[in-house]
Design brief:
The complex is a heterotrimer. Chain A is α/β, with parallel strands linked by helices. Chain A is built from 5 helices and 7 strands, in the order H-E-E-E-H-E-H-E-H-E-E-H. Chain C is built from 9 helices and 1 strand; from the N terminus they run H-H-H-E-H-H-H-H-H-H. The chains are: A alpha/beta, B alpha+beta, C mainly alpha. Chains in contact: A-B, A-C, B-C.
C-alpha cells in the first residue's frame, strides 16, 4: 500500500481542478481593456458630409464615444437608447459621438435617414481609431470624463439603466468643474 | 416519434451499461461465469440501444424533424444531406451522442474479442469500461439530452455552424478524433481490470498494447485530419495554431506515445511498470481533460462548442477518475513493483527512458502553456495569451530531442554494450546525417535549426532503413530469396518492431515537411485588376475575374485565377468567400475557402481577402507552402506502420496455443495466489 | 451579378453575442464586402514578403494576437481587422518607431492579451522556466532511476555481458511466448552485422 500516490494526486490534482473551475462563468473571449483611467486617445474624424471633429477640442465636457456599424444587430437596438440618452443629457453638456466601424457611407446614410441622431456620426475609414481604442468588435462604448480621461468602457449594447449608471461619475466631475 | 424513440433507446442503453458494469464487477470478484456472460450480454444490448439512438438522430436530422431539440439547433432545410448527416457532431449534444456510441462500440468489440480469452480479469475490465460508458450515457440521457422535445415545433432551423459545413474533411476529423479519445478508455479499463484482479502476469500486456495502439492510430489520423481541415478552411495557410483544443488532442497523443514506448521496456525488462501504468492513466485523464476543455467554455478556441453547463460535471468526473487511478496505484503497488534491471544509459532501454522523459516534458509543457492563461488570471487578474510563438519555441527543441532519440534508440542494442560497438553503430548514420546537412547547405539552407533538423532526419532515416536492410540482406543470402520476399519475411517475423519503424519514418517525413513549410513559406498580398498578376515562387498567378455564385444553403463570391509555371498554365484556382444562410438570412461574415494547387514540392495556396463589387479588382493572398502535402502523406505512413504493428500474428498463435498470452488461465482453473506472490511468480516465469 | 452582390451586402450579422463565439475569419464584419472605395488600404498593391519593411512588419505582427480571431497572429490572420492592424504596424515601422514602442502601443490599447507569448517577467516566468525545470527534473529522475536499477540489476540480472555482449543481445525478456522470444533473438542476431 503506497498512499503516496493518493497524496500526490490530491496535492497536484486538486489545485489543478480548482484552477480549471476558476474559469467557470467567465467569458474566455472577453478582454479587459487597459484604457479606463488613461487619457482618451485623440482623433480627428470626419462625418459623412466631411465635417471634421477633433476629440481634444471637446475637453471640458463629458464625452460618450460609441463604436458601431449598420450591419450589427445589437447596435441597432442600442442606437435608440443612445439617441434618447443624447437628447436627455443635452442640457448637461454631454457630447455623444458615433464612430462607424468597417462600414459603407451608403448604408450609414440609409440607416441614419431612418433613425436619425442629434450627435455627429464619424467614419473610421482605415480602422485606425478603432485600433487606438482597442476595439475588438461592435458595439463598444467609451465614457470620457471632462478632463479627457476614460472613465469606463462598455462592451456590447447599452441599455438605458447602464447608460445612466455610467454617465453618473462623468456628470459628477463635470458638475464640479 | 424520433424524440421518444431516441430518448427511450438512450435510457435503455444507460440501464444496460449500469447493469453490465455491476455484472462485470461481480463477475470479476466472485469469479462467476454467469455474471461475466450477463455483463457481455448487457454490453451488446447497450451497443444495440445506442446504435438505435444514433440512427434515430440521423433519421431525425435527415427528415428535418424539428421537434427534436438537437435538430432544431443544427438542422436546416437548406443544408445539403451530406452536411446534414455530419452535423450530428457539429454541436455539443450530438457530439456526446457520437462519443457515447463509439464507447459502446469499443465495449462490444472488447466483450466479443475476449469472450473466451483473458477471462480472469476481463469482467473487471468490462465493468470499468461500462462504468465510463454509463457516465456518458447518463450525460446523453440527462444534462446533454439531444432528444428533448421542442414545442412549438419550429418550421426551420439555423443549420450547422458554417465552419463545419464548409469542407468535407469535417466528415473525417471529428469521428477519428473521438474514436481516438474514447478508445483510450479501453487500455485504461484493461489496466484497471488487471490491477483489480490483482494478478499481474504478462498476459495482459498484449491486449493492453493492442488496444492502446488502436486509439493511438485514430488519434493520429484525427489530429492530422484536423490540421488538414484547418489548412483547407481557415484560410491562413497554417495547419496547427496551438489552439487550446488542438493542444487538448495533442496531449493524450503525447502521453500515449510515451506509454507505448515504456510498455516495450516493461515487456522486455520487467521495469517501469508503475511508470507505464501511470502514463496510461494520465492519458485517460488527459482525454477527459480534453473533453472538458472542448466543452466547458473555459477555454477560448476555434473548435470549442458554445458555453454549456456540463463543464462542472466533466470536472467532477475528472476528479473521480483521478482518485480512482491514484487509489488503484496505491492499493496495488506491490503488484507493479519493478523486478527487472536496467543495463545502463547507453542502451536501448536508456534511450526509451529518455524518450519517456522528453515526451512527458512535452506533455507537461503543452499543458502548462494551455492552462497558463487561467493561472495568470487567477494570480495576477490579468488575461494573457500563450500562443504559437511560445509553443514553437518550447516545442522545437523537444521535437528535435524526439527526432534524435528516434535515431539513437534503434541504433543502440538492447542491454549493456561497450563503447566501441556503440560508436560503430552510430558512425555511418552520423556521417550520413552530416552529409545531408551539407547537401542542404549546398541548396541554400543556412538557418541553423532547419539544418539541424534535416541533418538529424538523415541520421534517423539511415538508422531506420539499416534496421530493414541488414536483416533483409542476411535473409537474402541465407535463403536465396529475392529482396522483396526477404523484406516481407523479415517484417512479418517482427511486425511490432518494424511497424514501429514505419511509424518512425512517417514521423521523420512529417517533421521535415513541417520544418520546411514553416521556414520556407513565401507570402504575397496583392490587389489585382483583371489580367493583373503576381509571382510567388516559381508560379505566376493571374487574376481573371470575381463572380457571385448562389446555392441553396450559401452565397459565395468566387475569384478565378490562372496559375502558370514557366509560362505553362498548370491550374485554375478559385478561392472563395462563402456566406451561409442562417434562419433564411445570409450571414454577413464570410467563411473563406482558400484554393490550393498541390504538388509534391509544395502547395500554391490562394485566399480571397477582398474584392471590388463590380468584379474588376480583388485582393489575393498568395502563399507558397513547401512540402505541405508530405504532412498528410506521412500520416498515411504512420497509419500503415501501426497497422503492421497491430496485425494479429495468427500462425504463431495457432502453433503455440495454450502457452501464448497466458490464455490458458481459465478463470476458475486455479485459485489466484495473493497479489504479492502473483507478481513474484510472474516475474519468475518471465525469467 | 449586381443583384447577388447586393444580397451579400445586405446579409446580416447575428451580432456581438454570437460573434464572440464565432471562429477566426468570421468574427469580423466582412470588410471583403466593404472593401474597395470606402476602405482604401494605405498599402501598395503588391506586398512582397521579401521586402525589408514587409519582413519586419511580418516578424512583429507574428507576435501580436489578432483580437477578433482565435489565437492567430495578425500576421497569419486573413481577417480584415488583422489587415488593419498589420497596416498600423507597417506604418509605425516606416515612421521609425522601434519594435518595443510598437509592442507597447498595442499592449496599452488591448492589454497583455495582445501578446501571443507572455512577457518573461514576474509570475509569467513560471510559464517560461517551468518547461526547463520539468525537463531537468525528468532527466534527474531518470538518472536516479537508472543508477538505482542498474545497481540492483547487476547481481540478479545475471552476467551483464550476457545481455548485451552476446551476438544478438537477446536480453532477459519478459516475453511469455518462448517461440516469439526465440524468433526475436534470431532476428536481433540477424540485425547485427
Amino acid at each position: 500500500m503506497k498512499w503516496g500516490y493518493v497524496v500526490g494526486a490530491a496535492a497536484l490534482g486538486l489545485p489543478f481542478l480548482a484552477l480549471l473551475a476558476s474559469g467557470f462563468g467567465k467569458d474566455p473571449s472577453a478582454i479587459v481593456s487597459p484604457l479606463p483611467g488613461h487619457e482618451a486617445p485623440d482623433f480627428t474624424l470626419s462625418d459623412l458630409d466631411g465635417k471634421a471633429v477633433r476629440l481634444s477640442e471637446l475637453r471640458g465636457a463629458p464625452v460618450v464615444i460609441n463604436f458601431w456599424a449598420t450591419w450589427c444587430i445589437p447596435c441597432r437596438q442600442e442606437h435608440e437608447v443612445l439617441a434618447r440618452g443624447a437628447a436627455h443629457h443635452a442640457a448637461d453638456g454631454v457630447q455623444f459621438l458615433g464612430v462607424v466601424y468597417q462600414d459603407e457611407p451608403e448604408s450609414i446614410r440609409r440607416f441614419l435617414a431612418r433613425s436619425p441622431v442629434d450627435y455627429p456620426t464619424l467614419v473610421d475609414v482605415k480602422g485606425q481609431t478603432a485600433i487606438d481604442y482597442g476595439v475588438t468588435g461592435v458595439p463598444e462604448t467609451f465614457f470620457v470624463r471632462p478632463d479627457g480621461v476614460i472613465d469606463s468602457k462598455k462592451v456590447g449594447p447599452l441599455d438605458p439603466q447602464d447608460l445612466e449608471r455610467r454617465l453618473g461619475p462623468l456628470l459628477a466631475t463635470g458638475g464640479g468643474s | 416519434m424520433n424524440g421518444p424513440i431516441g430518448a427511450g433507446a438512450v435510457h435503455a442503453a444507460l440501464a444496460c451499461a449500469a447493469f453490465g458494469a455491476v455484472c462485470g464487477f461481480v463477475g470479476g470478484r466472485r469469479r462467476s461465469m454467469d455474471a461475466w456472460r450477463l455483463a457481455r450480454g448487457a454490453t451488446y444490448a447497450s451497443f444495440a440501444a445506442m446504435s438505435l439512438a444514433i440512427l434515430t438522430m440521423v433519421r431525425a436530422l435527415l427528415t428535418h424533424d424539428f421537434s427534436v431539440w438537437y435538430v432544431s439547433r443544427v438542422g436546416s432545410l437548406e443544408t445539403p444531406p451530406f452536411y446534414t448527416v455530419i452535423s450530428l457532431w457539429s454541436s455539443l449534444e450530438g457530439s456526446i451522442l457520437l462519443w457515447g456510441w463509439i464507447l459502446t462500440v469499443y465495449a462490444a468489440a472488447l466483450a466479443f474479442v475476449y469472450r473466451r480469452r483473458h477471462a480472469d480479469y476481463m469482467p473487471y475490465t468490462l465493468g470499468v469500461l461500462l462504468s465510463v460508458s454509463a457516465f456518458f450515457t447518463w450525460l446523453i440521457a440527462g444534462p446533454a439530452d439531444p432528444f428533448e422535445p421542442v414545442f412549438p415545433v419550429p418550421s426551420n432551423g439555423p443549420g450547422p455552424n458554417p465552419l463545419l459545413q464548409n469542407h468535407p474533411l469535417m466528415a473525417l476529423h471529428p469521428p477519428m478524433l473521438y474514436a481516438g479519445y474514447v478508445g483510450m478508455a479501453v487500455p485504461f479499463a484493461i489496466a484497471s481490470g488487471a490491477l483489480l484482479r490483482g494478478r499481474i502476469g504478462t498476459a495482459w500486456l498484449r491486449p493492453l498494447r493492442l488496444w492502446a495502439l488502436i486509439p493511438w492510430t485514430f488519434l493520429t489520423v484525427g489530429i492530422v485530419a484536423g490540421g488538414w481541415w484547418s489548412y483547407e478552411v481557415l484560410g491562413w495557410g497554417g495547419y496547427w495554431a496551438w489552439d487550446p483544443v488542438e493542444n487538448a488532442s495533442f496531449l493524450p497523443w503525447l502521453s500515449a506515445t510515451a506509454f507505448i514506448h515504456s510498455l516495450m521496456v516493461q515487456e522486455r525488462r520487467g521495469i517501469l511498470k508503475t511508470w507505464s501504468l501511470s502514463l496510461l492513466m494520465v492519458t485517460f485523464l488527459l482525454t477527459i481533460l480534453g473533453t472538458f476543455m472542448t466543452r466547458s467554455g473555459v477555454f477560448n478556441s476555434v473548435h470549442s462548442f458554445s458555453q454549456s453547463s456540463i463543464g462542472p460535471i466533466f470536472l467532477a468526473f475528472l476528479g473521480v477518475a483521478l482518485f480512482w487511478c491514484a487509489g488503484l496505484l496505491a492499493t496495488r503497488s506491490e503488484l507493479i513493483a519493478s523486478d527487472g534491471a536496467l543495463p545502463g544509459p547507453a542502451s536501448r532501454e536508456g534511450a526509451f527512458l529518455l524518450n519517456n522523459v522528453v515526451f512527458l516534458a512535452f506533455t507537461l509543457t503543452v499543458l502548462l502553456g494551455t492552462v497558463y492563461p487561467l493561472l495568470a488570471e487567477a494570480i495576477r487578474g490579468v488575461r494573457v495569451s500563450v500562443g504559437l510563438p511560445y509553443f514553437n519555441r518550447m516545442g522545437v527543441p523537444l521535437g528535435l530531442a524526439v527526432l534524435s532519440l528516434m535515431g539513437v534508440g534503434p541504433a543502440l542494442p538492447w542491454g549493456r554494450s561497450d563503447a566501441a560497438r556503440i560508436r560503430a553503430q552510430l558512425l555511418w548514420p552520423g556521417l550520413f546525417g552530416i552529409a545531408v546537412a551539407c547537401g542542404c547547405v549546398a541548396f541554400g539552407v543556412v538557418q541553423p535549426l532547419p539544418l539541424l533538423t534535416f541533418g538529424l532526419a538523415g541520421f534517423v532515416t539511415f538508422v531506420t532503413l539499416r534496421e530493414f536492410w541488414v536483416p533483409t540482406r542476411s535473409r537474402m543470402s541465407s535463403s536465396g530469396a529475392g529482396a522483396l520476399e526477404s523484406l516481407f519475411h523479415v517484417v512479418s517475423r517482427a511486425r511490432r518492431r518494424y511497424g514501429g519503424y514505419v511509424v518512425h519514418l512517417g514521423v521523420v517525413a512529417m517533421i521535415v515537411a513541417i520544418t520546411a513549410s514553416w521556414n520556407y513559406k513565401l507570402k504575397v498580398e496583392a490587389t489585382l485588376d483583371r489580367g493583373g498578376s503576381f509571382r510567388i515562387g516559381d508560379y505566376d498567378v493571374t487574376f481573371r475575374d470575381v463572380r457571385p455564385v448562389e446555392e441553396s444553403h450559401r452565397f459565395s463570391v468566387v475569384a478565378t485565377l490562372d496559375v502558370a509555371r514557366d509560362g505553362e498554365p498548370v491550374a485554375v484556382l478559385q478561392p472563395r468567400s462563402n456566406h451561409y444562410k442562417i434562419m433564411g438570412q445570409f450571414q454577413r461574415e464570410p467563411i473563406g475557402t482558400p484554393a490550393v494547387h498541390s504538388t509534391a514540392a509544395g502547395d500554391v495556396y490562394l485566399t480571397l481577402l477582398a474584392f471590388e463589387k463590380d468584379g474588376s479588382q480583388a485582393t489575393i493572398q498568395g502563399l507558397w507552402q513547401p512540402l505541405v502535402p508530405w504532412i498528410w502523406w506521412s500520416a498515411g505512413l504512420m497509419v500503415l506502420g501501426s497497422f503492421v504493428a497491430m496485425w494479429p500474428e495468427r500462425r504463431r498463435r495457432g502453433r503455440a496455443r495454450g502457452g501464448v498470452d497466458g490464455e490458458a488461465h481459465a478463470p476458475r482453473a486455479e485459485p489466484a495466489p495473493p497479489p504479492g506472490q502473483a507478481g513474484a511468480a510472474a516475474a519468475e516465469a518471465a525469467r | 451579378m449586381r443583384r447577388a452582390l447586393a444580397l451579400a451586402a445586405l446579409a446580416v450579422v447575428l451580432g456581438r453575442s454570437v460573434a464572440a463565439t464565432e471562429p477566426a475569419a468570421t468574427t469580423e464584419p466582412a470588410a471583403a464586402i466593404a472593401a474597395g472605395e470606402d476602405h482604401p488600404a494605405p498599402t501598395p498593391p503588391i506586398l512582397l514578403a521579401g521586402d525589408a519593411l514587409e519582413r519586419r512588419t511580418s516578424a512583429l505582427a507574428s507576435k501580436l494576437r489578432c483580437p477578433v480571431c482565435q489565437g492567430l497572429s495578425i500576421d497569419d490572420s486573413p481577417a480584415p481587422s488583422a489587415r488593419d492592424m498589420r497596416a498600423v504596424v507597417r506604418q509605425k515601422l516606416a515612421e521609425g518607431m522601434s519594435e518595443e514602442e510598437i509592442t507597447a502601443y498595442f499592449v496599452s490599447r488591448y492589454g497583455e492579451f495582445v501578446l501571443l507569448q507572455p512577457e518573461a517577467k514576474g509570475v509569467n516566468l513560471l510559464v517560461w522556466l517551468g518547461p526547463v525545470a520539468i525537463l531537468l527534473g525528468g532527466v534527474a529522475l531518470a538518472g536516479g532511476f537508472l543508477r538505482r536499477h542498474s545497481r540492483v540489476g547487476r547481481p540478479e540480472g545475471g552476467a551483464p555481458r550476457g545481455t548485451g555482449g552476446t551476438e544478438g543481445g537477446a536480453p532477459a525478456t519478459v516475453e511469455s511466448d518462448p517461440y516469439l522470444a526465440r524468433a526475436r533473438a534470431l532476428l536481433e542476431g540477424e540485425g547485427k552485422p
